[in-house]
Design brief:
Layout (H helix, E strand, L loop, with lengths): L5 H4 L1 H16 L8 H9 L3 H5 L6 H28 L4 H19 L23 H14 L1 H16 L4 H24 L1 H11 L3 H21 L1 H12 L8
Helix pairs in contact: 2-8, 2-9, 2-11, 5-7, 5-8, 5-9, 6-8, 6-11, 8-9, 8-11, 9-10
């Protein structure tokens, strides 16, 4: 997969974390509530019109996901290239990344507060609603600017990418993260009425989801700090030898 050696890169556990982080990013307090308005904007109709089937949101949603995936892939390759430049300092880079990720996790757990993570840096995409290109541009803007919710998760995945040093690994991890975030978005567009019902039932638990995300960040931070990812990768390969064939 992506030309990555699992034994050397410990890709599999990192990919599992990236997928979970993507799903939790979708369910986070400042992403989930805006999904219906985003879909409505991209299709050029109101939320009520979207629910009544005036226009399908599937194609715009697909281009939105392609837009955010483009940015994520570029970020992943850049992070890996940065890590490769400092390959001789990989241990220190991993420890530093672990501390940063742990601090962001403590922010989500509300143990500490980091003001910059409570601000938003959304980009103005102009009046581009109702077109596939507009949806793609909106996806680019979302990936660049939705700081409060996806910033820490994205930083965690970028840290995992940087500590690997392989550009293909960074692209692979961010692709998995984009899948975790993008698939629920596409499913929401396909099954809009059912999705909105599910979202309404999830909303009371958004604070719990935020804390789960914080716990995941702290766990990953500890794993980066202690080298547990490599140990977990070896354990997976020893327990399930067929996984070596995926590299």
């Amino acid at each position: 997969m992506f030309g990555i050696d699992l034994i050397d890169a410990a890709f599999l556990p990192a990919a599992m974390v990236a997928m979970l982080a993507g799903i939790l990013s979708f369910l986070s307090p400042c992403v989930l509530p805006v999904v219906p308005p985003y879909l409505a904007y991209m299709t050029g109709v109101g939320v009520s019109g979207l629910r009544q089937g005036e226009r399908s949101a599937v194609v715009p949603a697909l281009f939105f996901v392609l837009g955010l995936s483009t940015v994520f892939l570029l970020m992943g390759m850049a992070a890996s290239a940065f890590g490769r430049m400092f390959l001789q300092y990989q241990d220190w880079l991993a420890r530093g990344a672990g501390v940063v990720v742990m601090v962001m996790g403590l922010h989500f757990l509300r143990v500490i507060r980091i003001p910059i993570l409570d601000s938003e840096a959304r980009l103005d995409t102009g009046d581009r609603g109702g077109s596939t290109m507009g949806a793609y541009v909106l996806g680019l803007a979302f990936a660049f600017g939705w700081t409060p919710c996806i910033g820490p998760q994205l930083g965690m995945i970028l840290s995992l990418a940087a500590t690997g040093g392989e550009v293909s690994r960074g692209a692979g991890l961010l692709a998995v993260y984009a899948i975790g975030l993008g698939i629920p978005f596409l499913l929401s567009a396909i099954f809009i009425n059912r999705a909105m019902g599910v979202m309404n039932r999830i909303k009371p638990y958004l604070t719990v989801i935020e804390k789960v995300m914080g716990a995941l960040l702290v766990l990953v931070g500890v794993a980066l700090l202690t080298g547990a990812f490599s140990m977990f990768a070896y354990w997976l390969l020893e327990t399930f030898p067929f996984l070596a064939m995926l590299g």
